[in-house]
Amino acid sequence: MTKDLNDHEPGVLRVFQSKDQIKAYYNKIARAYDLLAENSEQPMRAKGLASLSARPGERVLEIGFGTGHCLVELARAVGAEGKAYGIDISDSMMSLSRDLLKKADLDQRVKLICRDAEHMPYPDDSLDGIFTSFTLELFDTPAIPAVLVECRRVLRPGGRLVVVALSKEGKQGLMLKAYEWTHKHFPNLMDCRPIYVQRSIAAAGFDVAATEIAHMWVPVEIVHAIKPE
After folding, report:
1. Dihedrals φ, ψ of 221, to 5°?
2. In 56, 71, 113, 114, which residue has its Cα 20 to 30 A from 20's Cα atom?
3. Is the sign of the CA dihedral 66, 69, 151, 4 positive or negative?
4. What does the pLDDT read at residue 6?
5. Distances in Å between the alpha carbon of 126 and those of 63, 66, 154, 171, 204?
């Protein structure tokens, strides 16, 4: 059962840009994204992928696949008998990911779509695992529960969800305050903000199996959750 899905988390800032603005922003920075963020984000993504532990023959999805590096790892993990799926709002990111997957000779194992994750085209109970990193915090506060409910719908019972996201948990220092101030006053430069990851996932009806608080310049939650049987 879900609970309190429409509650706005206290202290969590809203998202001030529309989805069209966010899409345009990521289309614009797609080719520079790895230079801007990959070095700091990659160790966190690696922790998340290790937690998901995709296995041969599985069907797994990445929400917000960006430039495609994690999709490469997921496609390798599921093997020739499995399938990886990716959904992202940016068609420029999708183009870069397709090129990367072709270069790695993995494009036949992956199916990409350019779409908003609040309404996903995958059947009920059809996926073994979902991975998403630095994406859930891009959704406005009321939309986060909708995305998580969609994740629960498309996962099979016992399926795994791993979320890596900027967090309101952990050490709350000056850097976090500066980050939130920039998001509030210059949302076109800082389009995401820290959220409460574990509590949002639990409220959407998942069983939380593990949570790790890691740190970049701000805290990051890495949450492994399971859809109840």
Report:
1. -95, 135
2. 71
3. negative
4. 41
5. 15, 23, 6, 38, 18
- Per-residue tokens: 114: 């350019």
CATH number of the 19-226 domain: 3.40.50.150
Distance CA 55, CA 46 (A): 16
Distances in Å between the Cα of 141 and the Cα atoms of 5, 13, 30, 43, 147 are 10, 8, 25, 26, 11
pLDDT < 50 regions, the chain: 1-8
Q: Residue 63: which residues within 8 A CB-CB, separation 6 or more?
A: 87, 88, 117, 130, 131, 132, 135, 136, 147, 151
Tell me the whole-structure pTM to 2 decimals. 0.92
* Residue ranges covered by each domain of the chain: 19-226
**What does the alpha-carbon distance between residue 57 and residue 198 come to, in Å, rounded to a whole number?**
28
Residue found by looking up tokens 């050490």 in the block: 171
Cβ of 104: how many Cβ atoms within 10 Å? 16
